[in-house]
Design brief:
By secondary structure, the chain is an alpha+beta fold. Among the domains are: 119 residues, no CATH class; 45 residues, Membrane-bound Lytic Murein Transglycosylase D, Chain A, CATH 3.10.350; 76 residues, Resuscitation-promoting factor rpfb (Resuscitation-promoting factor rpfb fold, Single Sheet), CATH 2.20.230.10; 129 residues, Glucose Permease (Domain IIA), CATH 2.70.70.10. A hairpin with a 6-residue loop joins β21 and β22. The longest helix is centred in the N-terminal third of the chain and has 36 residues. The radius of gyration is 50 Å and the shape is rod-shaped.
Length: 552
């Protein structure tokens, strides 16, 4: 059905054109034919006039009828399979004589014109008479309408002074195809017939819009090339072109539309869209800014690549770039290198404690060379196509070795013989036994009295290694400052206290009761410390004891 409908539409247009031309031609020739056919009789001439009138009516009927009612015709055909076949055939045959009475004269006349055109080398055209003069032959009335529109575009600085007889007269005739005029030729002849002062010049059109005319077309070309040369100097090997449609049309232009090349240059550099910025306000986010200004977030990000990293109150954000009237495209093939990031792998070592971690192989980024075709519009990248990629050097993966060995935690007991003559024995007995190693691993980096004023044992371990309560008790101090940095003191009763200093962070507060082995903090280097370690003290009635005697 769609194929038949399209065929009917094409046929109706063709027949309408041919019969319309024929009817108009016969009607215009009616008076001449009447004079020549007067001896034959008045009735013959009247019939001929009626035939010419009918040709126009029938042409419109065929065109509009087939266009507007073709759906009804096809609906009738589609009903053949649904209703009684014989009834539809009879109805169709009933209209055959009427249809043939319309179609046959048109077909015959069309065939006549086709034979005439083929053998005589002529074509049916419209002769245009304007201001009493023949200004050309056109294939269709639309050519004259386009020419009138072009005239109004050329005359922009003054009123168009029409001639006295400005209405065109159309006459059908057969002419050689070579004499047909296009809209540009007809434009010159219409302007020539006007009362405006005109001169032969070259007009510049950007995207179909008339910008201005100059008397020297070479000067106009030089202005255009100069604009391109600015971009060619920056990109000597690139393809530099205008993105707009540029046309230079030579013809007749009003003197008022002829300008200096400097005016053309200024006109080309004008913008059709100005730059717009937005000033960041309090509580603004990139997504909110895009929504407020009615643009896509991806577009906002493209205009402001760093907006996600930096967004300050009072900062100006680009919302719209300025667009010049004449845009330049630069397509360049570029080569550049990019790093290939290395990956990191972990290797376990059961001979090292689980606190051990060391980079055994340094990672190194690789490098690749990329060839790409990049398109810039007015200096801003608009498209990038990767043409090829070549690996210059492969990346070297980083290897990190970590220990998996669990630390051995000892719980030594301590017993001492009381001696009234030994204050140290008395202190040890007061401290009692049952202390445990206070760090999850580590080693003794400095013992008590390792240097002047060093009142405890330093246990070195990686940052954030867990620190345990060496014995159950109550937290009496949890401080974040001082020479000890972040430190904790636990009271175990009977005048015995322990101190854990230089923590990176604390896990308990003053007043908390902690059980032996409970995590109370994490190894760090706060306060007066040169490395990550836990400074551990045992005090009995205020006297400093050697922790090695209690925890090994």
């Amino acid at each position: 059905m769609e194929f038949l409908e399209e065929a009917a539409r094409s046929l109706s247009k063709y027949l309408y054109k041919q019969t319309y031309f024929s009817g108009v031609w016969l009607k215009r020739k009616y008076k001449r034919i009447r004079r020549r056919m007067r001896p034959v009789g008045k009735n013959v001439c009247l019939n001929l006039k009626g035939f010419s009138d009918n040709m126009l009516i029938k042409s419109k009927h065929i065109a509009h009828g087939l266009n507007d009612k073709r759906q009804a015709v096809f609906n009738s055909f589609s009903c053949i399979g649904k209703n009684d076949l014989s009834t539809n055939l009879k109805s169709a045959l009933h209209y055959v004589p009427k249809v043939m009475s319309y179609v046959m004269p048109v077909v015959a006349l069309t065939a006549f014109f086709g034979v005439y055109e083929a053998f005589m080398g002529k074509t049916l055209a419209i002769s245009v008479v304007y201001d009493g003069k023949n200004i050309g032959y056109i294939a269709d009335e639309s050519v004259f309408n386009d020419a009138q529109q072009a005239v109004s575009e050329r005359i922009i600085y003054e009123e168009y002074e029409k001639p006295i007889d400005f209405l065109p007269e159309y006459t059908l005739c057969f002419v050689d195809k070579s004499v047909l005029s296009d809209s540009d030729e007809l434009t010159d002849r219409i302007i020539e017939a006007s009362n405006n002062q005109i001169e032969m010049s070259s007009g510049l059109y950007i995207d179909g819009t008339f910008i201005g005319a100059v008397t020297d077309s070479n000067a106009l070309i030089e202005v255009l090339d100069a604009k391109l040369d600015v971009f060619r100097q920056e990109n000597p090997n690139a393809e530099v072109t205008f993105t707009n449609k540029i046309e230079i049309k030579s013809g007749l232009y009003p003197v008022s539309s002829i300008v200096d090349t400097s005016n053309i240059k200024e006109e080309m550099n004008e913008t059709v869209q100005s730059e717009q910025v937005y000033t960041v306000k309090e509580n603004d986010t990139p997504l909110l800014i895009a929504s407020r200004n009615g643009i896509a977030y991806s577009e906002l990000k493209e205009l402001n690549p760093d907006i996600e990293e930096t967004l300050l109150i009072g900062q100006e954000v680009l919302i719209q770039r300025a667009t010049p009237k004449l845009s330049v495209s630069v397509v360049d093939t570029v080569e550049y290198t990019e790093e290939i990031p290395y990956e990191s792998t972990t290797v376990e070592d059961d001979s090292e404690l689980n606190t051990y971690e060391e980079v055994t192989t340094e990672g190194k980024n690789g490098e690749k060379k990329i060839t790409a075709k990049v398109t810039y519009i007015n200096g801003v990248e608009s498209e990038r196509t990767i043409l090829s990629t070549e690996v210059v050097s492969e990346p070297v993966d980083e290897v990190v070795t970590v220990g998996t060995k669990e630390p051995v935690v000892s719980y030594p007991s301590y017993s001492s013989s009381y001696s009234s003559s030994s204050s140290s024995s008395s202190s040890s007995q007061s401290a009692g036994s049952g202390f445990i190693w206070p760090v999850a691993g580590g080693y003794v980096s400095c013992g008590i009295w390792g240097y002047a004023g060093h009142t405890g044992m330093d246990i070195a371990a990686p940052v954030n290694t867990s620190i345990y309560a060496s014995k159950s008790g109550t937290v009496v101090l949890a401080s974040n400052s001082g020479p000890y940095g972040k430190h904790i003191i636990i009271d175990h009763g009977n005048g015995v206290t322990t101190l854990y200093a230089h923590c990176n962070s604390l896990a308990v507060s003053v007043g908390d009761y902690v059980s032996q082995g409970q995590v109370i903090g994490y190894v760090g280097a706060t306060g007066n410390a040169t490395g990550n370690h836990c400074h551990f003290e045992i005090r009995v009635n205020g006297s400093y004891q050697d922790p090695a005697d209690y925890v090994g």
